[in-house]
Amino acid sequence: MEKRVTFRGWMLPLLLIAPQVVVSAVFFFYPAGQAIWQSLFIPDPFGLSSQFVGLGNFEFLLSDPFYRASFATTAIFSILVTLCSMIPALFLAVIADRLIKGSGVYRTLLIWPYAVAPAVAGVLWLFMFNTRVGVISWYLGTLGYDWNHVLNGGEAMGLVVIASAWGRISYNFLFFFAALQAVPRSVIEAAAIDGARFWRRFFTIVLPLLSPTTFFLLVVNVVYAFFETFGVIHTITAGGPQQSTTILVYKVFSDGFVGQDLGSSSAQSVILLIVVGLLTVIQFKFIEKRVHY
Amino acid sequence: MARDIHGMVEKRGAGLWLTHVFMILGVLVIFFPIWLAFVASTVTQVDIIQPPMPVWPGDQFRINYKNALFSGVNVPVATMLFNSLVMAVGIAVGKIAISLLSAFAIVYFRFPGRNVFFWMIFLTLMLPVEVRIVPTFEVVAGFGMLNSYSGLIFPLIASATATFLFRQFFLTIPDELAEAARVDGARPMRFFWDIVVPMSRTNVAALFVILFIYGWNQYLWPLLITTDPEMNTIVMGIKQMFPSGDDFAHWPTIMATSILAMIPPVIVVVGMQRLFIRGLVDSEK
User: What are the TM regions of this chain, as residue ranges (chain B) (predicted)?
Assistant: First the structure.
């Protein structure tokens, strides 16, 4: 789409667009280019010179069991976060949708966790499950279950998943609730007259009508789990125990800043770049479809 | 009849109460972590390190919050709150300002390189700062912008979401307005200030809410570039309050800080709920 009416001149528009172009060039294109460039080299241990290795860093990464494990960890983590944040949100939205009055109050209360930063959410959940002072871990202890996410990788994963999913429930709730409100009452009432009961109506009518929203939320929640959960991981487990919660973004950080392995870290950035690209394409394709829908 | 059908779809009577009970249970479960943090911020360290901790607030509210705000662990929390505020407002205002200008240029002018710039901006949509941290860190360090507000703000405004939003909106402004402005001999910037900016008010406000929360809740970037505790933001500063050894963390102070860290974004989200939801829907489209 283009404007029919435009203003003349080329100095002014160049001046207007300059701030954004400069900021993007300096803080986006140059660093992104550097990441790609550095991914082709291995610096010597003193950082004085570096040796061109072509795709060597990538070959090394893809055959590195730790990196592969991190891929698997990220896949499991993002699937769990997506499920744990979407299912409760859908459930709450369906209940809220059945209320004629008062749903606004619940909505106001339910959006709170969205405002809580992932890193702060991490601290809150860490506090509840802390092995020495945590309330929930203490009660689990009285039931005979010895909770220890510091040593047990599975429990560590469970904790970072819950802490990451918690704030997202608010977000998903808002979208599901809006979509449910948009489902035409007449369709539901017609089904009710025909004798379809609530759950039947839900699975045969409501859920299919929600599918555009559901698909959209699937994509954005996966993107969230991939890229925005660093704070949760860093505050709760720092990737441990034994790398059981080291997701890809965390590994870029720990290899690049803690391990100072710039070549590998850059190669990992480039791989993530490709992943983001793919996810963006999926998102755009889907949005185009939704416009036609 | 109509009422009966209604009764089948929306709940009445006992069913209605059950629905409310479910809803309240849901809210309680979701709220529990925040409640517990609040309780922990009002009791003494001894109450906490001898589990189970109480579930109702104690009487240490004033002491704990005063201690956190004005002494903290490494640096007073008041300082971190101020840093977070500068960062969040800086990101929101900076991004909105550069995006309004560049969207105006792209929509209302034909100039050489327009398409190139458009695609350049479009590409920045795709790459979160988490992915390019090492080289971005080097750039910021090279400019001597470590431990500075500009170092906190600029790398995070290099993204195009806002530009796209404004572009979409400007395209819906009727052509007659620009036509009339041109006939009247109004200069482009006059048209921008008198027509375009006032018409974009709601979009600007909605975007401000979203960007403020985005900026406030940043973690990784401030963690990397603020090595001086005086420049820490509150969201990343909480983690710095944990002792590195085997000592007990001072939970009342940490939890008071967590509550303080969530108050500003919660006020913004709840207080401007309508704008927030609009911004959320707009920026994800």
Answer: 21-43, 85-109, 116-137, 149-170, 191-214, 249-270
